[in-house]
Write a structure and sequence with these properties.
1 helix; single chain; alpha+beta
C-alpha cells in the first residue's frame, strides 16, 4: 500500500511539472525563424513576413515549400493539395517566400533554416534584381 502511494505522488509531480512547462510554452510569442523542415503555424510558431532559406544543398533534391490556408485535422479532406494556397519546388538559391497573415501555416522540406527578412522599403523601389524580387 505504501508503495502505491509513492507511485501516485510521483505521477502527480510529473503531471504538475508538465502543466507548468506546458503553460510556459503556450504563452511563448511566435518566432522569426524556422529551423529547417517542418510545419509552422502562422501566429503561433512564426510571425508573417518574408522568409529566406539557403535552398537545397544538393540541386538533385531541391527545396519544396507550401503556404496553407488550413492545417488538416483527422477527418478533414484527404487530398494533400486541398489546403495549399501556394507552393513551389525549386533548385534556386537562396529561396524567399512571403508568408501572409491570412495563411494558417507554412511547410517546407529540403530548404534549410528559414530566417525572417527585413520588410522591403515603403518607397516602392523594390523590384526585380533587389533582395525581395518582383513578387513582393
Amino acid at each position: 500500500m505504501h508503495r502505491r502511494g509513492r507511485t501516485l505522488a510521483g505521477a502527480g509531480a510529473v503531471a504538475a511539472t508538465a502543466t507548468v512547462l506546458g503553460s510556459a510554452l503556450a504563452g511563448a510569442d511566435p518566432g522569426m525563424s524556422m529551423p529547417g523542415d517542418g510545419l509552422y503555424r502562422v501566429g503561433i510558431d512564426i510571425v508573417p513576413g518574408i522568409y529566406q532559406a539557403p535552398g537545397a544543398p544538393d540541386a538533385a533534391t531541391g527545396c519544396f515549400w507550401q503556404r496553407l490556408w488550413h492545417v488538416a485535422d483527422p477527418g478533414d479532406e484527404t487530398d494533400p493539395n486541398h489546403y495549399v494556397v501556394a507552393s513551389d519546388f525549386t533548385r534556386t538559391t537562396p529561396v524567399r517566400v512571403l508568408v501572409k497573415p491570412s495563411d494558417a501555416a507554412f511547410r517546407s522540406s529540403g530548404c534549410g533554416d528559414w530566417t525572417l527578412m527585413p520588410a522591403p522599403p515603403a518607397s516602392g523601389s523594390s523590384g526585380p534584381g533587389t533582395p525581395y524580387g518582383s513578387e513582393f
